Automatic annotation (TrEMBL):
Residues 9-290 form the FAD/NAD(P)-binding domain. It is an enzyme of class 1 (oxidoreductase). Homodimer. This is Ferredoxin--NADP reductase. Belongs to the ferredoxin--NADP reductase type 2 family.
Length: 326
């Protein structure tokens, strides 16, 4: 039986930049807001695909790492106490007398209005196929503290692998980090920390190394011409993420390929269902953060008026308001 949660006035599907900013504007207009995302953390493509890269074209943020842009968006939204539902995939949409209900595998989320900010689709872990068998292979790190004192082999060169290795080493796990290439991705600070821990012996690093085979007790790595056994209680594999629009494409929203058409207020073919960000046809091929944020402002303000018709669509100037401190 799925849990049925209390209704929010606005439900945002996707906690990428467009979804976070739509949620911010809904909060600014005084509405309760909930966000659903398949990812375990907010940020969409910025967190999943390129947290370590420097972005140059977000207004007012010269040369800022993607992870820091996400951090700023999350902090800007925080005063409005959004209800994040992370690690859940929105799969169905049902009309109700009070609006809409969105279903995930875990729960039902009723809302007055829905904003689809799904980007390229639900960012889901790429399939991992490793030779051999090990009793504890994972593709995400739910609770680092649970690994204290355990031997963990972290496999992968993506930023999530670097971050997991550092987090686990910091919580007392015996960590080995390995990748088939010599380079790991991460912020300069993270990469420096890897080097420091490696030099001190607090982190074992094998790269480039090929994971040859798992066994009951760990994994065999191919290092140049040698084979080396790394004992591990847990093998944590990070293989990046792939977007999947499939869960939403059955919704009757007049999909045009990977895009959703909308009116000038970003409302789709369904009343009370709005769209913002990369998935919006209004932005066309301009898959940019700045364009997604603008569409999010339009969608959220139109959603505010839809849910509470006494609110004007145009929000007025935030500089005329007194907001909670951040
Ligand atoms: C490598 C790279 C570099 C880039 N560099 C720049 C740059 O320099 N400047 C720039 O402006 N743009 C850049 N972009 C593009 C930018 O990242 C996107 O335009 C932006 O992320 C779009 O934001 P969004 O919120 O619309 O979608 P996304 O960031 O894709 O977020 C959508 C979120 O919705 C979630 N989601 C989708 N469907 C579901 C579902 N059914 N259930 C639950 N969750 C769901 C996804 O998991 C995802 O987290 C870059 C993109 C990439 C890949």
């Amino acid at each position: 039986m799925k849990a049925r949660h209390a209704s929010s006035e606005v439900l945002v599907i996707g906690a990428g930049p467009a979804g976070l900013y739509a949620a911010f504007y809904a909060g600014l207009r005084g509405l309760s807001v909930r966000l659903i995302d398949a990812q375990p953390e907010p940020g969409g493509q910025l967190s999943a695909l390129y947290p370590d890269k420097v972005v140059y074209d977000v207004p007012g943020l010269p040369a800022t790492r993607a992870a820091e842009i996400v951090d700023a968006l999350v902090r800007q939204l925080a005063p409005f106490r959004p209800d994040y539902r992370l690690g859940e995939v929105a799969r169905d949409l049902r009309r109700t007398p009070d609006g809409w209900t969105v279903g995930t595998d875990q729960a039902e989320y009723p809302a007055g209005a829905v904003i689809v900010a799904a980007g390229l689709g639900a960012l889901l872990p790429r399939e991992v196929r490793l030779p051999g068998l090990h009793p504890d292979v994972r593709t995400a790190l739910p609770d680092p503290a649970a690994f204290s004192g355990r031997r963990v082999l972290v496999v992968g060169g993506v930023p999530q692998a670097t971050r997991a290795a550092l987090t686990l080493a910091g919580t007392g796990a015996a960590v080995t980090l390995t990748h088939r290439r010599a380079l790991f991705r991460g912020s300069p600070e993270q990469l420096e920390q890897v080097q420091t821990l490696r030099n001190s012996g607090a982190l074992q690093v094998h790269a480039p190394a090929e994971l040859d085979r798992l066994d009951e007790r760990g994994a065999w790595l191919k290092l140049g011409g040698d084979r080396q056994h790394v004992p591990a209680d847990t093998v944590l594999v990070f293989n990046g993420f792939l977007p999947d629009l499939g869960p939403l494409q059955g919704w009757p929203l007049n999909w045009q390929g990977e895009y959703l058409p909308a009116d000038e207020q970003q409302m789709t073919a369904l009343p009370g269902v709005f769209v913002a960000g990369d998935v919006s046809l209004s932005g066309g091929d301009f898959k940019l953060i700045s364009v997604g944020l603008a569409l999010a402002a339009l969608a959220a303000n139109a959603a505010a008026h839809f849910v509470r018709p006494e609110l004007k669509i145009r929000p007025g100037h935030s500089s005329d308001r007194r907001l909670p401190p951040h």
